[in-house]
Design a protein that fits this description.
- The chain is of the alpha/beta class.
- Helix content is 29%, strand content 25%.
- The chain contains 8 helices and 15 strands.
- It has helices spanning 39-48, 64-72, 89-94, 114-123, 159-166, 188-197, 211-220, 242-250, and strands spanning 6-10, 13-17, 31-35, 54-58, 78-81, 99-102, 107-108, 111-112, 129-132, 135-138, 141-146, 151-156, 171-175, 202-205, 226-228.
- The N and C termini lie close together (10 Å).
Length: 252
């Protein structure tokens, strides 16, 4: 189990936002944290602690400059997501990302675009691709959701679907959209499904707020599901000590 840190960018600044509140109507946006501290400073911190595989997420326009500044601090240290497609994926890899995180190019309007999956795999090697399979629960099953987590697809998170998508990527990033940003604990049922069925490196995101949550995730995830924490960390204004999380994950 690895700690994968994050740098979420909105309007060119490092922020923590409740993902389900993102929409074209900015008045509905729920910000948990915002800072004038640069993206590069967070990148330097993660590099110092050798936390490879962290996620830089561009939430909307106006974030390219800050994303490049963070990538410049640590070549091949970060994955990057936000409007990635087959035409710009190589650009971001050349900017220093180890992987590109792909969401709306493949998952949009409640559908899976398999043609775009093929285009992406041709544009860059699958070893450089992370697929965002963020999901919500419906009728006791978890389904991939699209369009800022507002539309359900018919694609269930299960062994069959995870095996299919693994043919197109090197890693999965999976937000538990029902709990993301709410700091109410991880969705351990989803974590167990991922531990049982995901055959490639998988990072879980959503709801983690205490060290006890991380300990539970380690058990339910069979010590093989990576995780990210945002709003709950003290570096983002929360109560969970960043250094303690780093130290916990270094313990054998």
């Amino acid at each position: 189990m690895e700690f994968r840190p994050c740098i979420d960018l909105h309007d060119g600044k490092v922020k923590q936002i409740v993902g389900s509140s993102l929409s074209d109507n900015k008045s509905s946006l729920i910000e948990n944290f915002s800072t004038d501290k640069s993206s590069a400073e967070f990148a330097k911190l993660y590099k110092k602690d050798n936390l490879r595989g962290g996620h830089i997420i561009k939430l909307g326009d106006g974030n390219d400059k800050a994303a490049k500044e963070a990538l410049a601090q640590w070549k091949n240290g970060f994955h990057i997501g936000g409007a990635i497609n087959d035409e710009n994926a190589k650009f971001w890899l050349d900017c220093g990302a180890s992987h590109v995180i792909v969401t709306s190019f493949v998952f949009k309007d409640g559908k899976i675009n398999t043609d775009n999956l093929q285009k992406l795999k041709k544009a860059v090697a699958k070893e450089r691709i992370t697929l965002d399979l963020s999901c919500k629960k419906r009728e006791n099953k978890y389904y991939i959701v699209t369009d800022r987590w507002q539309k359900f697809t018919d694609e269930e998170i299960c062994g069959e679907s995870l095996d299919f998508f693994a043919e197109y990527c090197d890693e999965f990033l999976i937000h538990a959209a029902d709990v993301e940003g709410k700091k109410q604990g991880a969705d351990l049922e989803l974590v167990e499904i991922l531990a049982k069925n995901a055959k490639i490196p998988t990072t879980y995101a959503g709801g983690i707020s205490t060290l006890d949550d991380i300990k539970k995730l380690k058990i339910h995830g069979e010590n093989r599901i990576n995780f990210t924490v945002g709003s709950a960390l003290d570096i983002f204004g929360g109560g969970l000590n960043y250094s303690q999380v780093v130290e916990f994950c270094r313990q054998k």
